[in-house]
Amino acid sequence: MTHLHGAGEEGAAPPPPLEGFEGFEKLSPHHPMGIAINHRGIRLVYDGASHMGVLMSKEELESARSFLQDPSKTPKDQAGRSLRDLVDRGFLPKGPLPSIGPSSLAEAAALVDRYTSQVLIRKFCLKVTDRCNFRCTYCRGTHMTSPGPLRHMDIHTARKGLELYFGMYSRVFLKLSQRARAWALRVCPPGLSWYGGEPLLNFQTVRLSAEAFLNLPWGELGIPRESLRFSMNTNLSIMTDDMIDFLVRHDITLFASLDGPKDQHDLCRVLEDQTGTFDTAFRNLMRIKELYPRYFSRRVSIFGVLTDRHDVQRCRSFTESLGALRSVHFPERREGVFVRDPQGVIERVRLQGERMIEEMLETAKDDRSFPASPKAAPLYPFARMSFQRPLPYDPLKLTLTCPMGVDNLMVLPDGNLSICHKAEVPSIGHVEGGIDRMALANLYLSYGETVTRHCSSCWAVRLCPVCAASRITGSEERWDFINPSPAECRAIRAETAFRMRCFLALSIELPGVARRIEELAKDPSVNVGVLTVDSIERAAEDEGI
Q1: Which class for 482: exposed (0-12), middle (13-18), buried (19 or more C-beta within 10 A)?
Q2: Residue 58's pLDDT band (boundaries 50, 70, 90)?
Q3: Cα Rg, the chain, nearest whole Å
């Protein structure tokens, strides 16, 4: 049985198509977590349960099929014996996963305790106001039928939230060795992010909370002030010189909203009377660049949103020409919508997949920076799968989301706590009392029940991009987790299988590039994932800090 970067036969007939496109096939109806992906005669057999991949020739795959159909038969060749050994260790288990995440409240509470004591919080946000002076057509707030009172956060609430964050960060930071602390400060230093609404509508709280954040006793932890970080999202509607000076003085990473040139930006980013906002936003953005050009190129990123109405190329070309640090566009997001055009995604993969793979290979061959580029980032999850041994099944580790309420936390204007900046409900506590352990445990249990019902037979379960926050719908009074529709799941699997095939193609055609992607994907200082005490210690040791 061959492993990654091994040789295979050339010109073998492709397997039967899976879900409407060639190059993919399910292994067995009794093993729903397995899939075989073919590129030029080499098959990557992937098992979503154990997150393991094994390369096989056509003959080895047929031997595997025979064994899976009747495991009682003694394998006749080495490939069959090797497969039986892997199956005995957890590869390609029969049937669906028993559960995803905790299956009882006691298990959920234990999971919360483990996360709380071991996970270093990566992002902390103050939503300093609900108010926004724009009425962007794609914003959830614009379409809420009952948005409730529009609140400003007061400085008392902000300070209590910062004290809570300091306690969460320091609790885990102090468990680290000195060299691991140095690594953590480089990769995940203490940080404060401001969100809204439009946060600069409450500039007083922004300004005072920055001072309060800097004045927390970081020095007692051995953390110098220069290690502290700030970031802010803004629609650029207001930007006085005092505000610009504040941004520059604190070296704040600024995410500025601009969709494209005037006619494109004003399609969706409008005021209440439907007039466009480009002139104001662009003038304020250019004012920052005029006053502080170096800050603009080092700390300002332009974020845009694209809908079916936008000219994608014009929007991207315009924002990229402005000289900011980054220019990124995101697809429009609607509550309860996970894939905008599921059939279109499947058709694109089916009709254009071969061409897109060839174009990727050409780019990777000619561009040495490809492994570290955004074009390669979607391949990182596949580089992290195991090719040596099956990962043990552990429902408490297979939660399909970042550690809710521990890895990321947002304080709302009234002091309620939410799991992250993508979801304001349900509340998991308040700044006056901290995180409610049992409320968070119930959240994990509810989420586990939702995804177990829907995802326990899906081979792409460990690779699905749909997180817990994006599944939450409703209000504080009545909320729930929802799953993608069957059509959306087919599209997600199609895209996932295509990207896996891209990684397989790189491994076969350009193994050096694939190895570099593997190195970057497994380097937590580059591909920053959930950070635990153990993972930080290992990373620091690997780097020799």
Answers
A1: middle
A2: confident
A3: 25
pLDDT at position 146 is 41
Q: Which residue, 407, 509, 499, 422, is CA-closest to 468? A: 422
Mean per-residue pLDDT, 83-99: 85
Name the nearest CA neighbour of 462 among 404, 386, 517.
386
Structure tokens at 150: 């529009």
- 3-state SS assignment for residue 429: strand
Q: Where are the domains of the chain?
A: 24-89
Interacting residues of 205 by C-beta distance below 8 A, sequence separation 6+: 126, 128, 129, 152, 153, 154, 155, 158
How many CA atoms does the CB half-sphere of 381 hold within 13 Å?
Answer: 18
Burial of 507 (0-12, 13-18, 19+ CB in 10 A): buried
Q: 461 — phi, psi (to 5°)?
A: -60, -35
Output the CA–CA distances (angstroms, integers) from residue 205 to 131, 153, 213, 215, 268, in the order listed: 14, 7, 12, 15, 29
Quote the pLDDT of residue 84. 81
Give the model's confidence band at 85: pLDDT under 50 very low, under 70 low, under 90 confident, else very high.
confident
pLDDT score of 5 more than 90: no
- With a cut of 50, say whether residue 202 has pLDDT above it: yes
Specify the DSSP element, H or E, that contains 191: strand 191-195
Cβ-based neighbours of 486, under 8 Å, separated by 6 or more: none
At 31-55, the pLDDT tens digits run: 889 999 888 888 889 999 888 888 8
Contacts of 427 (CB under 8 A, 6+ apart): 412, 416, 417, 418, 436, 439, 476
CA angle, corner 305, sides to 194 and 412, nearest 5? 25
CA quadruple 484, 485, 491, 497: dihedral sign = positive
The contacts of residue 283 (CB under 8 Å, 6+ apart) are: none
Instruction: Name the band, by pLDDT with cuts 50, 70 and 90, for residue 395.
Output: low
**Could you give the percent of the chain with pLDDT greater than 90?**
67
